[in-house]
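Before the break, one more example. Copy the sequence into your notebook; we will annotate it together after we see the structure.
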Amino acid sequence: MTLYYYKAIDEHGRRVSGEMQADDAASAIAELRGSGRLPISAEPASDRRYFGRLFLRLRSWRSRIRGRDITAITHELATLLNAGIPLDGSLRILERYAQNGMLKIVLSEIHNAVQSGKSLSAAMGMHDTVFDPFSVSLIRAGEASGALAAAVERLADHRERTDEFRANLVSSLTYPIVLVCVSVISLFVLLTFVIPRFIPLFADADAPLPLLTQVVFGAAKLMQAYWWVAIFLA
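Here is what the structure looks like once it is written out:
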């Protein structure tokens, strides 16, 4: 038996991961399917456990469902519904042409749930990590009023404004964050390497130092002795 590190989608549409004993990867995948989970990967977790997990996390991060992906498929769904295509056919089209692997799985499960008789809002509610409560509530209101296409279109517009606001916020905060980081690094270098070189010169002068100079020299000595504390706090 070999220890395998797996990633899968559970019956509620949530991504799960863990370790399991199996004879080989095929057995691990078969066991996952038998427990009602949809396998994503099953990798040996023995000698290269750390690097294997790091690679899996990187691959998972690259294939994660982004907010703009949800916004795009919401716009596409609104367009298809407004064109007169039934919900079942619209979901089938979105599922077929989805580029993101995780998103394709989510769309497939939503499509299957709708085909089994659930409403679109109920199917979306099964994936609470992808669709927030506001989106589910808006779709539920559209279903109750008989204006699903209009509700999906309003949701798409809302998500587009939210994505734009988030992008503007990140863009506005990037420069201050970079400036603060550069300032902290510069201050660390000055207190740790530059100022201590001047302390012996002032000590040899045998003259009283201003209070501010004494504070700076004290901070430099403290930083030079306990520089690792500053890195830990950072």
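The CA atoms of residues 208 and 214 lie 9 Å apart. The first strand starts at residue 2 and ends at 9. Try to locate both features in your own notes.
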